[in-house]
Amino acid sequence: MIRALLFDLDGTVADTNGLILASFRHTFSAHGVEGVADEAITALFGEPLDRSMTRFKPAESAAMVATYRVHNKAHHDDLIRPFPGVQEALTALKEKGYLLGIVTSKRQEMASRSLACLGLAPFFDVVVTPENTKEHKPHPAPVLYAMARLGVSPEETLMIGDSPYDLLSGRAAGCQTVAVSWSSLPRTVLEDAKPTFFLEDINDLMPLLAGPLGGVQ
Q1: Which residue, 23, 115, 184, 185, has most beta carbons within 10 Å?
Q2: Using the 8-state DSSP alphabet, how is residue 142 labeled?
Q3: Rounded distance between C-alpha atoms, residue 69 and residue 2, angstroms
Q4: Rounded to an integer, what distance in angstroms lies between the CA atom of residue 169 and that of residue 159?
């Protein structure tokens, strides 16, 4: 029986796709990285930022991360949006007694800011950021940390996300996983991570829990 649901933040709960793309483009321009298509950038979504920048200019990766963060922070509040139906779905889940968590590759400062901007912070019992674990998604450590904080087992936990990093992290931790159809990535990329379920609409989550997953009664 599912007792806890863990969500990725960017691209799953918060629509930050435009913000992330803009911050990557600004960073690449500032550091002379040319010819990177938007599709190549979106393929990095969910990956820790320092790892992404190292792919392009290893010697400048720290400076690129700093450039990205300055731009992202400056434009964050204007560009972040909630995905439709998320607040209503979270309200329904809390009313049913589910434990809810965020497991994100976003730093604690900006993760907290995102949740505050969207008015979603009160819904979550735990927020796991890169500061909490030595290893990061797709390693299982962040999901295991969240489960330990919530006092639940893998069999009682569902990991929900929009990138292979979310799904692989959850699966490695022993959880069932859910890929969301509103991901910016092609469905085939998510299918390669072998999610247990696909969620076509956030409103389908409660029926999924009431049916195949047999969640909190």
Answers
A1: 23
A2: H
A3: 36
A4: 8
The whole-angstrom separation of Cα 216 and Cα 8 is: 21
Separation of alpha carbons 58 and 56, rounded Å: 6
Domains of the chain in start order, with CATH, are 4-15+82-210 (3.40.50.1000), 17-79 (1.10.150)
* Helices 164-172 + 141-150 axis angle, to 10: 60
Which residues belong to the active site? 8
Q: How far apart are CA 157 and CA 41, in angstroms?
A: 30
pTM of the model: 0.90
- Quick: pLDDT tens for 148-178: 999 999 999 999 999 999 999 999 999 999 9
- Tens of pLDDT, residue by residue over 93-152, are 999 999 999 999 999 999 999 999 999 999 999 999 999 999 999 999 999 999 999 999
How many Å apart are CA 144 and CA 175, to the nearest integer? 10
Question: Using an 8 Å Cβ cutoff, are 7 and 161 in contact?
Answer: yes
